[in-house]
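Q: A reviewer asked whether we had any structural model of the full assembly, not just the individual parts. We don't, so I'm hoping you can provide one. Inputs are below.
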Amino acid sequence: MPKITIDNKEIDFTQGQTIIQAAEAASIDIPHFCWHSALSVSGNCRVCLVEVEKMPKLVIACSTLATDGMVVSSQSEKTLSARSAVMEFILINHPLDCPICDEAGDCKLQNYTYKHSNGESRFIESKNSKDKRVALGPNVMFDGERCISCSRCIRFCDEIVGEKQLTFVKRGDRVTISTFPGKELDNDYSMNVIDICPVGALTSRDFRFTSRVWEMSSTKSICSGCSKGCNIDVWVRNNQILRLTPRQNDAVNNFWMCDEGRLNTFKHINADTRINGPQVRRDGALSKVTWDEAFSAAASELKAFSKDEIGFVGSPQATNEDNFLFSKFVKSNFGIKNLTFFKHIIPGTADSLLQKEDKSPNSFGAELAGIKPSKDGYDFASLLSAINSHKIKALYILEDSNILEIPEIESYLSKLDLLIVHSVNSSVLTQRANIVFPAASYAEKNGTWINCDGIIQRIRPAVTTQEIDRSLDGFSMSRLDKFGTEYDRWNQTAKVDARPSWKILCGLMTVFGQKQKFSIVEEVFSEMSNTIPSLNGIDYSSIGDLGIKVSLKSPIPATIEGKH
Amino acid sequence: MNTNYANKNRLKDLTFWQKIYVPEIIKGLSVTMKNMFKPNFTLQYPEEKFIQPDSYRGRPVLVQEENNIERCVACGLCARVCPALAIEVQANETESEKERYPEKFEINMLRCIFCGFCEEVCPEEAIIMSKDYELVFRVREDAIYSKDKLLVPVKDLQDRINYLREFKG
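A: Here is a predicted structure for the entire assembly that you could use as a starting point for your response.
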């Protein structure tokens, strides 16, 4: 294997790698703005200049191929002074408005200025003025003055999305970024340019001015928007989710996520429509009851029907653990004849990058966890017609908001004598329901999902409900969370009374005389991994931050689909 | 055993003149007498008030420019540096040139320890330690000062601003 020496460290590399790639593989950090490991080499920022022995001038590490026996120094005196000069050059026209700029605290240019610049500018002339607050598209705002023309955003649109939407216009120090006349930056992945922008030139119109990065805590989680399961960070301040950003996972989403997932999968968690506390219908209206009352009400109502009259709908939005306990509960009390789930597939919404047709994050896992009707039972479509013909009189639905997308769902629901739902938000389902259990959302519980490629990944709690505590339950914490007290105003935000579905099912099974020994979700998972062959030997620590591939005996048949 | 140790010591330490008590009383009274004719330092607060030096750190206030707009751009550094977690800032966008303004700026005066870090860290010279030290509240909620109480016209703060420019650069 060829070897290269970087900063006196001998590194193996593969032929064709550039110096910066070889250095990155050996976790040596060579500063860079325009280079991005997922994009082509542009070589315009010049900050990655390094000294190579026997080369007359400094070379840029991002476009110089590593060769066998090359000796590179990223810390020599010549390199450092060149780097500092490049920083000074980049900062000539960069406004020093960090207090105003949203990127501050999370800014590559700011960090490098502290690290690699001598901190003084000799430039006394007035800086260039360019267009500020340009709406490049529905989700992205552009500030021309802050732009350092690294072209990352242009290359992202060209190379990753494959839609040429951005370009440089004008020349010299007047160069700026623009869309084509009459066109917008409106591709499905446009907001990724905000993440890869090394400065605050591109900002999210949804998140701008909302919060400083250091005020929020970030929690590693998974996007719930479709079956791809993009890895995300959930950013929380004062117990409210403020934004989602993609998290690198080369096996799943690389660096990216789609705008749909980024913008539309978290706002319901902070919404006023959250179900707060269990509810039971009495005299035609839902009224709030205690958990124990709700459990015994559900048990006595279910016992009034014969086994064949009750349909059970698991959820591809709930975790494997929730579905596993659901199937266990159904199997031991009613038999799995009518146990199924709704696969929410919208044809034509898939693309070659990330988006998938299946709009639930865990269809794979739901089936693996045992949500599957027996051969003589109903699948989801026939379950609906059985409701129509009044063969099924009662329905128990695990948390699933996608069911609302079924056309004329209300007419089916109105034919039921009993409807029990676990739900995060109030909806047509909960308005029709006889018993409503408030379910914790994906940002309020631990659990696992299995994505469309069979990779099992963990979701983690980022928002507290009444029954969990941020510090005791091992959440990631911001400074205010760490040093504040429960009496502080930022801790006074209302917390919903909701529980993860597996816990609700544990309570319900106790009423059915099957007391469960589970106190934490890991115990549910360990029972799962002992009983389901595909999950043998897997536990939460082996899943880790990036997930692992589940060995699957057979691919999941796409039999249980929605009607549209 | 050792119970009388202090007593014994005391008897040993005292001299004869101390033991007879009267000269010591006279000594003490002479100090009192001397001070009776010295100038008076006590102020008759609240009728009389002391004049603070410019280095005095009273309650932190926000500078209000002459056009009645706050100077603060809601960067959040004061909230970050505050060791008592007393400051809460919520930024938002403004149409004016500086883009960012504090939609909400609150200081919990029960928490503030008057350390002046917020003033020191402020990049805009927008939060200033005023000379105001009279803070009275009847309920806890009153101790949370929001923008209506915090904003002070820049002309009333000129002393402190000049002091900062001269000594803190």
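A: Points you may want to mention in the reply: Strands of chain B lie at 60-64, 87-93, 100-108, 127-129, 144-145, 151-153. Residues 30 and 36 of chain B are 10 Å apart (CA to CA).
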